[in-house]
Amino acid sequence: MLARAARRVCLAFPLAGRQGARYRVTGRPGPPAQEDRAGARERLGLISGRGCLLVFGGSLGARSINMAAVEASPTKRPRRSMCCTWPAAATIRSWPRERSRKDMTCREYLDLDEFGDALAAADLVVARAGGSVFEIAASGTPAILVPYPYASADHQTANARWMADAGAAIVIPMVS
């Protein structure tokens, strides 16, 4: 709303219809990308020698994404480690006990450094497409993004398209 009255508008990435002298693409501030993959995996306690899938849903969580990842994970001799972040403690408590295995590292919360480690450790990210797309892009980790279509102005779909257009992600629409 205030952009119309502003002399300068800073954007995280280019947006259609927002070009010209008033608009400047400045990016989004964030932590530097973590590059020590082996150290990150060790700090997170992930199983050595396996691929790593990072699943998270943003600050408010994404129970449907988390549960789909758990349901899709192999139950016998898994080939990869999974690091899930679950912002809602109730989601962790409601987890089927048989799905709590040592190949899955589930955390209710990751601080900034731990999140950087999780991105560095991951071979693939499955996530929503809110502001965290910038951290995913900075880490260079390929992603499967499931934008939340009810987010303000459907910005997650725009974020996901930006990542997909750059070849950094594939987009899967949320199914109700």
Instruction: Give me the side-by-side strand order of the main sheet.
Output: 5-4-3-6-7-8
Class from helix and strand fractions: alpha/beta
Strand content: 15-25%
Helix content: 25-40%
Number of strands: 8
What distance lies between the first and last C-alpha atoms, to the nearest angstrom?
30 Å
- Count helical runs: 6
Query: How are helices and strands ordered from N to C?
Result: EEHEHEHEHEHEHE
How does this model look, in words?
- The structure is a single chain.
- The protein is built from 6 helices and 8 strands.
- It is of the alpha/beta class and 176 residues long.
- The strands form 2 sheets. A 6-stranded parallel sheet has the order 5-4-3-6-7-8, with helices on both faces. A two-stranded parallel ribbon has the order 1-2.
- The chain is globular.
List the helices and strands and how they pair.
Elements: E1 9-11, E2 23-25, H1 37-44, E3 51-56, H2 63-72, E4 80-85, H3 89-93, E5 104-107, H4 112-121, E6 124-127, H5 133-139, E7 143-145, H6 155-165, E8 169-171
Parallel strand pairs: 1-2, 3-4, 3-6, 4-5, 6-7, 7-8
Entry summary:
This protein is α/β, with parallel strands linked by helices and 176 residues long. The protein has 6 helices and 8 strands, in the order E-E-H-E-H-E-H-E-H-E-H-E-H-E. The protein has helices at 37-44, 63-72, 89-93, 112-121, 133-139, 155-165; strands at residues 9-11, 23-25, 51-56, 80-85, 104-107, 124-127, 143-145, 169-171.
